[in-house]
Target: DUF4374 domain-containing protein
Amino acid sequence: MIKFNSRVVKGTLAVALAVSTAACTKNDGPENGRESNDVEFFIAAQESDNAAYLLAVPDITKQETLSIKGQGLETDAFGSWLFPTPYIGIGLKYQKGDPGLGIGVGLGADGNIVQSGGEFQIVSRFTTYGVFQEKVLTVVGGVTVADDPNNIYSTFNFVDPAKNNAVTSVTKSTTNLTGNGEYATLSGVVEFGNEFLTALVPSSIGTSTGSGGSSTGATAYPDSVWVAAYDKDLNVKRIYGDDRISAATGRHRSQYYSSISDDGKGNVYVFSPSNDASKKPAGVIRINSGTSSFDESYYWNLENEVAKTGKDGKLLFKQMYHVGGDYFILGYLIPGTNPIEGSVPNINALALVNVVDKTFKWVEGLPDFNYYPSFGTPIAEDGKFYVPVKEVDKLPTVYIVDSATGKATKGIEVDTKTISGIGKLRKK
Model:
């Protein structure tokens, strides 16, 4: 999104692999030979589970229909997009228990989206990810190591666009980081100066993690939150802990979504949706700039705010995004009245919150949550939140949420099945 600990067992540096199944690329160029800008919006138009077209457009706020016919870079379908530099986009494809796939792209001199670096595999698979020091960092927990059966590990994968998308993998113990004897599954990678922050989701060793690739089991500490600060060498520099909220993570199947963000002023806000067995309500707490513990004077009960709107206060948000300054977007799944065929989306409604004024409002102007619209990977810039939305039997459309008003307006729609993500790219 543009702005939108332990014993080393193994460290490998692998040149990004040319994976024949990852992407068959083809570029047909910009429509009508238009002149391109130095910076353009990026759209990942997904046609199927295995095919997508990557497009560059000068403006996604215009209410017009974009055709993908004969347009863009043809690739595999990558469900998540990250932008470690202004010049590079990294697409990730989660494949459940199989190795994850990845690709790098950039904005070519003629305004086309072009492949940048090699295609690659994340052999360990991944369950959370983020940007750190101009690299993409993915993590997967619940890793067992033959010569240390009493501890649980996590594998960290650094994807480096400056080295042809080479992947460096490091496996480290994430057991007893908090001193409670449990192991941690990491959620989110949030760059914070020369470090990155990640939430620790605890589990008791030996408990069942269920099916679907999850690495989280039962915990004896459902009503506590921990955040770890790691340096570039994966040393744990600090652990922040508190008992006012539960684990800080959004969840969808085996994926763990970050609910931690700085506000651009050095303060870090930690959101908890009140996960699993916790008795603590959904809430927000804060780490003030330059401090090594949570601010005991700051707490905000989000359940109460939802209840004030007339909806069930127990509704859980699944995703969180920083829009700018004191504003954040929360993605909720609200039970709809209209039956839906197939799987229910991760979220179907957005709320805009101001963490300083402690104001909460549902975003207006989006498709009706009762019909279960689905949301793609967004970006945020200059107080605006750009998010692709797909309604049943309609073309996917980019909506622009203005943090000053809490209202969404329609932008460009794309003649494709869905938009998996958007971003911005600059020419080199």
